[in-house]
Design goal:
The complex is a heterodimer of chains A (127) and B (210).
Chain A: H1 7-23, H2 27-32, H3 38-54, H4 62-74, H5 80-85, H6 89-126
Chain B: H1 4-9, H2 19-27, H3 31-53, H4 56-73, H5 84-102, H6 112-119, H7 124-143, H8 146-156, H9 162-169, H10 173-209
The chains are: A mainly alpha (127), B mainly alpha (210).
Chain lengths: 127, 210
Amino acid sequence: MQTTPYHPQMQDMLAAVTDAMLTGGSVDRVLKQYNLPRQEVAVFLTLITLLHRTIVGVKPSRRFAQRLKQDLMGAPRMGVIGRIRYLPPRVQIAAGVALVAGFLLLARRRLIADAHAETVREVEPAT
Amino acid sequence: MNTRKPLLKRAKNYKRLSDAELVDLAKAGEKPAFGELYERYLDKIYNYVFYRTGNHHDAEDLTARVFFRAMGHVETYTERGVPFQAWLYRIAHNLVANWHRDSGRRKIIPLDEFVASSLRAEAPDRYTEDKQEREALMTAIRKLPEERQQLLLLKFIDGLSNAEIGAIMERTEGAIKSLYHRTLLALRDDLQGTAADDASDYVHDEASEG
């Protein structure tokens, strides 16, 4: 990594330029305050501009924001149901399918056990 | 001196209260006070988590956990030089770190969602060029150590000052300035390397075609 003898001044300039860019201030005015090599400054300016254009804010959906606020204001702490509500839909679906499958498996075992018991009861008098 | 009573009298005008005053009210059990803090910081925390996870589903899940944890522990929070905002970010940071630790594969974050959201307002003719440029930048950001990524998000997404970032990351303002400089140098070197690689690929392709 290339180092320059202008470190402290460069650090101050980069911080000030970024702040000016983010707050809509004058970048030129900031640059005039520092006596730094133009070529080096230009590379950083391009990079900061690209960062500013690339890392942009996103907004949470209104539905999510409202629901979370209602939950926060209504519930003292998030229980299992609350946590499930914030899981991605695909996970919710998978959990639902697993729950139904588990229920069916239990019911099936119960039916088989009942049928087996019935058979045993029918066979026992004969022996 | 007990300041709680006058605060409670003013409680209905939550928007005018400072974070510290709202925290006092929340500690006293005033849920709407916490609701105001939620309104103030939802977008910031959501943005932070979104950029660290890469998708809206996990961002919603983790954001909800941040606020539930904050509400559950607000009684234990004492300012002592750490503003409420910094405390909230630390909770988010810890939850995101746990989320990354839980599953290694989650570290592979798709770029499309970030780049698409930042390109929506661009003219179509610049779309391809910009997309490549921004994807290269996002790739370079991903390669940075975690604390440098955090610094960029706090600066560019939340627009926090170096002093505020310092409070969150437990560093001095000077240290943040220095870290920012080193982060930009690393990005510059990475991108110049990428550009050089692209150029050499191009020359190689041209030569093999010729």
